[in-house]
Every structure is written in C-alpha cells, then in structure tokens.
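Researcher: I'd like a candidate sequence for this fold, 314 residues long. If you have to choose between options at a position, lean toward the conservative one.
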C-alpha cells in the first residue's frame, strides 16, 4: 500500500475509489473496502481509499464537544490493514464542504484518476444533503465516472456506524463497541504522577495522562483492560472518574492497576484496551469498603480477561 499526499495527481481512469471519515475503522468499513478491492481487481485498476484528516463536524461547526474514536495515525494503520492499493489522507476544508456532489465527483476524477466511485451503503457527500444515490449516478454518468453502491454490512452486530459506536463508548458499553469494530476501543497516553492513593490501599495504580483531548473516553467507571507498556501486554483494571471516596476534587483521571506487575513505568507510553465494563464509579462509605470493592473488581476483571484471552486464542 502507498500513502499519497494531497497534491499528488494520478493518471486519468486509473483508480476505483471510496471516500469517508472512517472513524473507528469498524466492520462496516471493512466490508466497504473489501468490496472496493474486489471491484478494482476485476477492472485491473488501483483501489484508492480517501479519508479525511479532520471530521466535517469539527470543521463546519467548531464543536469542541465532538470526540473521535481514534487518532489519525491509528486510523491510517487500520485502513492500511484492509489492503487498499492507495490511501489518501485529504484535508476537509470549508471549500471542499461547499462543493456539490457533481463538483466533488469531478474533482476526484481530475485529481485522483477516479474511474469508479464506490459509495458506502448509507454515505452522503456534497453539500446538497437531500440528493440520492440516483443523483450521484446521474452526475457520474455525465462526468464519465461510474458510481456504484457497496453492499450493506449484514454481520451479527449490524447495523454498524461510527455514530453508533461513539454512543456505545460514551455509555460505557465497550463490549458492544468491540463487537462493532472487531477489536477493543483503545486510548493511549503517558504514565504521569497522580495522587498516589492506590499504593496505600494495596492497589497501586499508574496514572494515564497526555491523552489526545479530541478523543472519546468511555463513561466514568471501572473497566477490565489489557495494557500495553514497555513492549509488554499486561492485564489490569482501570478507573475513569474523580475518585469521590478519596475526595480528590473534580479533576478527571484515568488510573490503571496492573495485575502481577510492579515495575517502574513513569514517563512510559501506555495504551489501554477496554475489554469490559465492571461498574459505575460511586462514593463509598470509607476506605475499608473501597478496599473490599476493589478486591471484587480485581477478581471480576481477572476472570473476564482470562475468558477473553482464551476465546481470542481459540
């Protein structure tokens, strides 16, 4: 696979392309790119996936509350794993947003050699949102670009969309989100100094900081997680929240207790795969109740992770 830059130009009639944000690179996206690859191979052309650098909602509405499922680097990696011939990260600009669908198809034809445009099953493009797939086909025929519709993803967890997945993650339903994406929701950051409360409780934690503020976090609560740090995959339980029992104020933190590990990882890059929700965060009556609850959480997380890893390996 080759990654293009925006000012690259491809020869006329050389590609079969699809375009979208592809946030989360979920199972529906995999179906779309698989169909794209089939079409391009049948025609002897190159398959081209065009993904936007910025989400249209962030550009058009300057909505700071809108969060993405994954960062650009991860999105490009996951799209690359779907094996298109070419991958183009394209900046979504206000000028691009004001193109109608005919102008958009013409731009793809002239700049990137698009002979066939594969539209996602429910995908819309161009600023005239009321246009239909039939309108796209009509514009394409006039411009010499065939427009075809990809099949709908009909797997066990259909329907799947990035919007649905964002809602699942925001609600803490990380198991359902994992089924829709085909892998766990992941966040990455660095291990930073926190409040250092955990060690005194018998549950030392690594505080995860420097997380991209544009990314979506699961709902506050406790989770069973797989942790990647220093080239190791470790098991653990993470808490997202404000530690109400310990009266640590209103600052949101992400803390992870690593099972059977006591190494020094301060300053290290760390990523968390959210495997299962354990419980909501709530204020307990005191330290002893907190210790008891953490013991229950740890036992539950170990069981869940063992079942997950066993199933994954089988």
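Model: Candidate sequence:
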């Amino acid at each position: 696979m080759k990654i293009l830059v925006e000012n690259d130009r491809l020869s006329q009639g050389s590609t079969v392309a699809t375009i979208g944000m592809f946030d989360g690179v979920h199972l529906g996206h995999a179906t779309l790119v698989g169909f794209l690859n089939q079409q391009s191979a049948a025609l002897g052309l190159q398959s081209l996936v065009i993904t936007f650098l910025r989400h249209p909602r962030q550009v058009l509405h300057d909505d700071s509350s809108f969060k993405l499922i994954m960062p650009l680097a991860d999105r490009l990696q996951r799209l690359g794993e779907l094996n298109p011939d070419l991958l183009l990260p394209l900046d979504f600009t206000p000028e691009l947003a004001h193109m109608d669908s005919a102008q958009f198809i013409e731009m793809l034809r002239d700049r990137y050699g698009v002979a066939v445009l594969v539209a996602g099953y429910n995908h819309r493009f161009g600023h005239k949102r009321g246009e239909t797939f039939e309108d796209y086909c009509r514009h394409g025929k006039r411009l010499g670009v065939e427009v075809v519709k990809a099949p709908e993803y009909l797997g066990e967890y259909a329907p799947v969309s990035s919007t649905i997945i964002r809602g699942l993650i925001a609600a803490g339903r990380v198991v359902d989100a994992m089924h829709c994406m085909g892998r766990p929701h992941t966040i990455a950051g660095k291990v930073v100094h926190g409040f250092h409360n955990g060690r005194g409780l018998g549950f030392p934690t690594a505080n995860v900081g420097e997380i991209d503020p544009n990314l979506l976090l699961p709902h506050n609560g406790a989770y069973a997680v797989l942790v990647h740090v220093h080239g190791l995959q470790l098991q653990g339980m993470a808490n997202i929240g404000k530690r109400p029992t310990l009266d640590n104020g209103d600052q949101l933190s992400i803390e992870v207790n690593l099972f059977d590990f006591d190494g020094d990882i301060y300053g290290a890059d760390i990523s968390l795969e959210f495997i299962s929700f354990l419980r909501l965060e709530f204020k307990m009556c005191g330290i002893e109740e907190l210790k008891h609850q953490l013991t229950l959480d740890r036992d539950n997380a170990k069981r869940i992770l063992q079942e997950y890893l066993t199933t994954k390996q089988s």
